[in-house]
Structure formats: structure tokens, C-alpha cells
Design a protein that fits this description.
This protein has about 325 residues and is mainly beta. It folds into 4 domains: about 10-100, Elongation Factor Tu (Ef-tu), domain 3, CATH 2.40.30; about 105-165, no CATH class; about 195-260, no CATH class; about 265-325, no CATH class. The protein is about 0% helix and about 35% strand. It has 1 helix and 24 strands. It has one helix at about 205-210, and strands at about 10-15, 20, 40-50, 55-65, 65-70, 70-75, 90-95, 105, 120, 125-135, 140-145, 155, 165, 170-175, 175-180, 190, 210, 220, 230, 250, 280, 300-305, 310-315, 320-325. Strands 1, 2, 3, 4, 5, 6 and 7 form a 7-stranded antiparallel beta sheet that branches. Strand 13 (about 165) and strand 14 form a beta hairpin. The radius of gyration is 52 Å and the shape is rod-shaped. It starts with 9 loop residues before the first strand and ends with a strand.
Length: about 325
Amino acid sequence: MSLNLYDRIKELSHTVGTGNIRLDGAAKGFSAFGDRYAYNDLVYYAVTDGTSYEVGSGQYIQSGGINYITRYPFNSTNSNNLVNFPNGVKEIYATYPGKYSVFTASGISSFKEPKSSGIAFWGSKHILDYSENILFDKNNTYIGINKSNPTSAIDIGGPNTYSRIKVSGIQLGPSGLSFQNTNSYSGGQQLEPFMRNVLNDITGVDAVFSLSGLVDQIFVFNKQNAGLVFAGPPSGCGSPPCQPNYPSFRALTSEDMPDLSDLYLDKLSYTDNDYLKISTFTTFSIGSGAIGSPSNSNKGVLFFAEDTNNLYISDGIVWKSGQFI
């Protein structure tokens, strides 16, 4: 099904009433509809009996071996409705109705003459207008706006204040990309083709990490001096307790060490009855005092004699000693 316009198509008809227009043959000096149109093609028609008229759209059809034009009027002498034609001869012909016509109007007012590769736009209800500032490059499928030789799919020339693109809340202009503030996104401006990662100097992230690459930025660790650990604020702040703070690479302090007294070894079992015992004596003589002479019962016992500044240990036979300065 197609809609085409052909010249000098006109037939006579003797149709009565508001039904389809029966085609009774070409008028003298004209062609019949069937010379140009195929059955079921769409047509714009005009029909008149010399007194009343009707203009509309319809189809060229055949029924029972007879050709007809169906009728859907949009302009007529009957308030734009179907005309109830009386007896007599009517003329029906293919037409180009003014209501749906499209034409150029160069030379009239500000309308311009179309040129090759130009893009047409509606200057009014029926008139196609033209602007030399909009160009279509057919060979490369490029559109140039204010650009006579586009080099990309859409190429916009002119100053930055003009060459802006706004699509679905994203605006590209001289100050970068502007993202619209929505319920899902906070919006804002992006001055580069991408938003660079930033290392924060308030929290000390810049002391730990560095960024490598330009577009493909990669987080890498900064080199640190030996003996440093990555930890929070040092312990031992006293009362009140230390406040939370950002971690950093720093040296350990003694206060950082946990209290492991519950894990300290205060006895070592050799047998069920033998233990490592540590004692201190103000005055001690070998073979006397609470420890007594070396024997299997005090084997492994360790003690410190303050008067001689000696540390003793029993091997079950003798007390072996060493002096501490």
C-alpha cells in the first residue's frame, strides 16, 4: 500500500449518494486511475458535480469487476462531511490537497532557497525552510551545525558559548559536563572527560597511597621507612582514653604492647613434682636457707642472691652461678 501523486488522472462517474465513487472511465484528455495506480493504493481525490464538491483520501479498489475510490473527506461543501450526490455526471480526479501540501517558499519573507546537502525543517504548517548553518554530509553520514566541513557524526562549530550539547540533563559546555541533580545522583560539574581520583590530605591517605596513570589511575602504596607500622593513634594516653584518629605509618611505643602477664611462664614442669622456682634472698650461703643444698628436689630452681649479686641455678648436683654487674 502506497501513496503517490500522478498528473492528469481524472474519470467520470455517475455515483448517487454517499457510497464509494464508481469509476466509469477516463475523461477526455486524461488518464484513468488504473493507468497509474494499483489496487489498494492510497490516493488523494477531489470529486464534483459542478455544484457540490468533496476532497479527501481513499483507496483505489475493485469490487465485482468494477473500480471504485473509497471516500474519507476532510473538505467538502457539506461541512467537510460526505456529500450526498444526486443523479448526473461527476468528475473525480487525483489531487494534491492544500491542507496536506508541502512546498518551499524561497524568496518569500525570510524563507531561503534549499541547497545541496542542506537539512530542511518546517518553517510553517506547509513550508519547508532551510538554514545554511545546518549541513548533512551524505558520504560520511556527518551532521555539521555551524560547521561547513563536519569531521564527526555531530560536529558543532562556533564559540564555546554556543557549541553546547544538552542531553537528558547532561550539558557539555565551556565549563565541562554539568550533571543534573536528581534523587539518585547529586549532580555537579565535571571539567575533564573523567573525574580524577583525589587523595585526601586531611585523613592522611596521601601519606599512604599514590596514584599512577592518567585515565586508568591505580592506587599504589608509598614507600615507608623501616621500623614503621600502619596503626591508629599510639596507646597510653591516660585518662580520658585516647580519641579515635586516622591510622598512619609510625613507630610502635611500649604502650602499644598488650599486657601478656597472663601468658608469662612462672613454672615449668619437668615431672609432676618438679617446678621452676624463682626466689630472691637478701643473704644466701650455699647449702643453707630456704633452698638448701643442690639435689634432685631443687633441680632447675633459679634464685638471686642480693648480697653477692649472683644468679644461681641448680642442676641437682651443684649450684651454678653468674654475677650481674
